[in-house]
Every structure is written in structure tokens, then in C-alpha cells.
């Protein structure tokens, strides 16, 4: 989730929970026979998933409603963006967390959100890598791919009710998300250059240092560790777990 004030995050989480519960309640009320309730709940889940992913740009505007007014930082970011091929709109906003996020189900509705803390903490070369990485997510439609997988998983869960299926589906989701991160790094290397991508990853590793043993617990994360990503860019060999 995009870094924001805790109150706005809480409001959004409660809103999402209420909408999801409301959709399931309506589906249950409209189902004439209990035998069709699982099917109705599956359809309701698909509607919720579409609304969740499609409304991400609106949620982002709620979480980060005001672009940064720091003219120097805006000018610096504009110069970095100008050095790259065409990208989607980029929003710089004030926040102490050092993060960059991409939202939008389709490319033409996508946005990249960058915090001022991240911009001030990284070099221009590193930020070129960040923007190129986030742009690769949009260019290769990774959010749409994740949405499609979630829909397929919801349908398969209805057709084949199985705890084993849920576990395997979870592992496949982790593998898919990790693959998307590797693909985005590869896309960044193509657009911004291998050196800029490695600079981004190394600077991020400095900002968010990790212990060597963290890798052994990374199986429960949807993202490869920064060390794994650096190794993949340097050698071309990807490690899923």
C-alpha cells in the first residue's frame, strides 16, 4: 500500500472491508437456492477483485492527495524522467518512507508514486533505475497479470475445493510476484542500463539492509530479496526461493 498518514490508511482499509462484505452479502441475498451460494460468492469475489484493482488509482489519490511543493525536488525528478523513454505520469509526494509504487490495472490509467524521502536518499542514477523498474511493471502489464491470476484462482477454488489447491495456489502466487520483480529489473536494465539498475538495487540495499539469514525466510514473501535481485542482474540467473 502507498505510504500515507495512518488515519487515511485506516479509513481505506475499513472501506475496502465494508465494500467486500457488502458485495458478499448482496450475493447471498440474491441467491434463491443455498446450492448456488458458492457460485454466487465466487462471482461476488470476482466483482470485488475487479473493483479493487481498477480503483487503485483513486485509492492512491486518497492516500497521497497532495503532490510535493518542493520545487527543487520536482525539478530534479523531472530531469531524471526526461532522461528516460516515455513513462506514465509520476507523482512526487511528501512522506518519510522511502518507497516508489505503481498503481493502475491498465497502462493508460497507471501512475507511479514516489516519496520525497526516497528521492532525497538516492542518486540520480539510482532514481533512473527506480523509475525504469516501475515503468517496466506498467509496460509488461504485471498488475493485470496478477489480477488475472487472482480471478483464475478464485474460480478454481470454487470448482475444486481443496486445501492442497489453496497451498499450491499461494506458492504459485509467490513465484509469479517474484518473476514480475525480476522482469521489472530486466526491463529497467534494458531501458536505463544495467549500471543504473545495479545502482538502484545497491542503494536500496543500503537503505534497507538485511541479514544473510533473511533469505531463508524469504519463501513467505512475495518479493525476492535485494541480494537475490542484484545477483540476477549481475549473472542473469533468477532464484525463486
UniProtKB/TrEMBL annotation:
Q: Where are the transmembrane segments?
A: 12-31, 43-64, 143-176
Q: Which InterPro entries match?
A: HtpX_protease, Peptidase_M48
The Peptidase M48 domain extends over: 80-234
Short name of any one Pfam family annotated for the protein = Peptidase_M48
**Keywords, alphabetical:** Cell membrane, Hydrolase, Membrane, Metal-binding, Metalloprotease, Plasmid, Protease, Transmembrane, Transmembrane helix, Zinc
Its record classes its membrane topology as: Multi-pass membrane protein
Task: Tell me, in one coarse class, where this protein mainly resides.
Answer: membrane
Q: Give the location in the cell.
A: Cell membrane
Question: Which coenzymes or cofactors are required?
Answer: Zn(2+)
From which domain of life does this come? Bacteria
How is the co-factor bound, per the entry? Binds 1 zinc ion per subunit.
Q: Which GO terms describe its molecular function?
A: metallopeptidase activity
PANTHER family, A to Z: PROTEASE HTPX
User: Could you say which protein family the record assigns here?
Assistant: Belongs to the peptidase M48 family.
What is the protein name for this chain? M48 family metalloprotease
Species in which this protein is naturally found: Mycetohabitans rhizoxinica
Amino acid at each position: 500500500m502507498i505510504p500515507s498518514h495512518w488515519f487515511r490508511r485506516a479509513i481505506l482499509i475499513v472501506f475496502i472491508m465494508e465494500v467486500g462484505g457488502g458485495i458478499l452479502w448482496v450475493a447471498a441475498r440474491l441467491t434463491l437456492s443455498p446450492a448456488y451460494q458458492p457460485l454466487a460468492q465466487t462471482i461476488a469475489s470476482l466483482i470485488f477483485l475487479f473493483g479493487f484493482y481498477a480503483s487503485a488509482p483513486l485509492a492512491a489519490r486518497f492516500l497521497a492527495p497532495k503532490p510535493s511543493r518542493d520545487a527543487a525536488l520536482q525539478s530534479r525528478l523531472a530531469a531524471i524522467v526526461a532522461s528516460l523513454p516515455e513513462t506514465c505520469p509520476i507523482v512526487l509526494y511528501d512522506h518519510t518512507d522511502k518507497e516508489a509504487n505503481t498503481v493502475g490495472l491498465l497502462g493508460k490509467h497507471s501512475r507511479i508514486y514516489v516519496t520525497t524521502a526516497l528521492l532525497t536518499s538516492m542518486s540520480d542514477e539510482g532514481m533512473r533505475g527506480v523509475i525504469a523498474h516501475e515503468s517496466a511493471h506498467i509496460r509488461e502489464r504485471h498488475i493485470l497479470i496478477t489480477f488475472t491470476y487472482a480471478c483464475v484462482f478464485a474460480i478454481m477454488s470454487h470448482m475444486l475445493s481443496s486445501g492442497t489447491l489453496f497451498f499450491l495456489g499461494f506458492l504459485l502466487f509467490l513465484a509469479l510476484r517474484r518473476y514480475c520483480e525480476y522482469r521489472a529489473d530486466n526491463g529497467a536494465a534494458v531501458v536505463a542500463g544495467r549500471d543504473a539498475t545495479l545502482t538502484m538495487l545497491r542503494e536500496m540495499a543500503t537503505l534497507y539492509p538485511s541479514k544473510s539469514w533473511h533469505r531463508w525466510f524469504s519463501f513467505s514473501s512475495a518479493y525476492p530479496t535485494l541480494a537475490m535481485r542484484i545477483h540476477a542482474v549481475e549473472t542473469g540467473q533468477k532464484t525463486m526461493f
